[in-house]
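Ticket #4471: structure export looks truncated?
Reporter: QA, pipeline team
Priority: medium

Steps to reproduce: submit the single chain below to the structure queue and open the exported record.
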Amino acid sequence: MATTITMPTACARSFDGTRASICQARAWVREVLPAGCGRVDDVLLVVSELVTNAILHSASGEPGGRYALQLEVNPPAHSVGVTCIDMGPALAPAVRQEGEGGRGLTIVKKLAATYEMRAEPTSRTVCCWLDWAAEQGGGA
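Actual output as written to the record:
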């Protein structure tokens, strides 16, 4: 039985920078989101896009690479924050087929109330917040 959270809470976890970790990250987020957290599908989509970008466009996707996710749930404000911290600039741009990809951050920015990216020499942090209406129920 899930417990409804009434105070802000945050949790974090790191993952291997492999494609298999995308499913692991989504499963972890689904597990830690509390009952009553609206827009679960949108949160999972944002997580998928951010971690995919970390793997494809940063050193996190290189052998031995990692990335970290932080999830912050604020029930009184009806919001959830998603932060992805990767290992910084890629050694080479991702190789794509014609017409493939390139829309992930556009999707994230449309779903999120706020979006921020900070780049450092050895890391890049992307943080966004999604709001949900008080009357929406949990979707997990």
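Status: closed, not a bug. The export was complete when the record was re-opened. Leaving a note from the reviewer for reference: The helical segments are 20-32, 40-57, 104-111.
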